[in-house]
Amino acid sequence: MTGRVASIALNTFREAIRDKVFLTLLVFAILVMGSARVIQPLALGEESKVIQDLGLSAITLFCVLIAVLIGGRLVYKEVEKRTIYIMLARPVRRWEFILGKYAGLMAVLAASLVVMTVGFYLVMFITGTPASAYLLWSLLMTFFELAILTATAILFSTFVTPIASSVFTFAVYFVGHLTRDLRLLAAMSPSPVVKVVSQVLYYVLPNLSNFNIRGEVVHDVVLNPEALALAIGYALLYTATLLLISTLIFSRKDF
Length: 255
Prior knowledge:
Layout: H1 3-18, H2 20-34, H3 36-39, H4 47-71, H5 74-80, H6 83-89, H7 94-127, H8 136-157, H9 162-176, H10 179-188, H11 192-204, H12 214-218, H13 225-251
């Protein structure tokens, strides 16, 4: 990472940390995990499983919201405020700008994961729930899922408004967890159009279900190291591709 990329990333990190959206979501995440104390008596003998699943789901959900809502306006707001002209007037390449913005938001998400994880383990300690380190595997895979989602949000942010970017990114997140169903739909549908569209969506959209291992870690199912490694490699390759496309689109803009 060059000095210019690091500088942009640091500035992005500081701005995002001060963002009211970020702070609001972080507080809500802690409150949701804290609600485990209320849910505990209703769990009917499955208290530990329910609390663990609730905590992991809350961390994933709120980190996704941070990635989508903040990432969706990272590039656009620089253009809207005209600060992009000042930045690009300096010896900053456009790929450095995109990479810096991406790295800054990923640093925010990493910090959020750490804070929420500490809160999660604190909730488990208070409620007397077994706090196995095995649960961290789910959070690690969530981080790589967020890597793809953040790159997606930045991609949309290069050519549409923040609202549209957030909507499109949410759509990618939702459909990305249904890609296996798309392949099944393509195999079962009698319509050639549906088959083609389903196949295209299956291969183009990210397969985010690969990163959802909450059920496995909560129920102590042995994870497949090869599958985890392939999922991580897939995330890195897909993210790099999205950032490359973002840079190409951003480079064509007339600033």
